[in-house]
Amino acid sequence: MHVRKLTTGFAAALALTFSLVGGQAVAAPTADADSALAARVVTYDASGSAEFRSAVDRGAAIWNESVDAVELRPAAAGQRANIRVLADNGWPRAITTSLGNGTVYIGRQAVNEGHNTIRISSHELGHILGLPDRKPGPCSSLMSGSTAGTTCTNAYPNAAEKAEVEGNFGGAFSRTAGAVPLNVVIVD
Questions:
Q1: Active-site annotation, residues
Q2: DSSP state, residue 142
Q3: Could you write out the three-class secondary structure of 1-24?
Q4: H/E element holding 83?
Q5: d(CA 77, CA 64)
Q6: Rounded Cα distance, 34 and 6, in Å
Q7: How does pLDDT run across 58-89, given as a tens digit for each residue?
Q8: What pTM did the predictor assign?
Q9: How far apart are CA 61 and CA 65, in angstroms?
Q10: Of 48, 58, 84, 177, whose CB is crowded by the most CB atoms within 10 A?
Q11: What angle do CA 95, 103, 174 make, to 5 degrees?
């Protein structure tokens, strides 16, 4: 989230500089400018994720470290979450209901085959954030999913994936083509 704060401060400094140089007074950025740059908060409920709870929390933290336009937070007690995360014995998958909303399944089948739980979590959360699968793909692409193989533990989105999520949530980049269709099951 540091880029947002830095950008706002930079904009204020530019406004002050141009007002002094140009001889014309310019209003400083208001609280509205800061709120326009605020991240969209998307909550998640990992209470049904069983033994994968820490992997889900780490996957959310990775997205929070990687992008500024959206922030994943655990839902407060009694709060309805945007994302429900469940564990089951099938293959990992996501059901998107709208951008930032849906259900993620951390499937034990992939874990039993040797796939990394944090990568699975981060990948499935990527679907809820609007990213499609990009298969086959290299380990450097989070959305390549299982095609990167069981030795791949990279749980971080690459630059293009970050930019796409920023665009999806109104960040500095524009929305890109290839977004995840809504109301579908994405089985990885």
A1: 124
A2: G
A3: CHHHHHHHHHHHHHHHHHHHHHCC
A4: strand 83-88
A5: 21
A6: 11
A7: 999 999 999 999 999 999 999 999 999 999 99
A8: 0.76
A9: 6
A10: 84
A11: 65
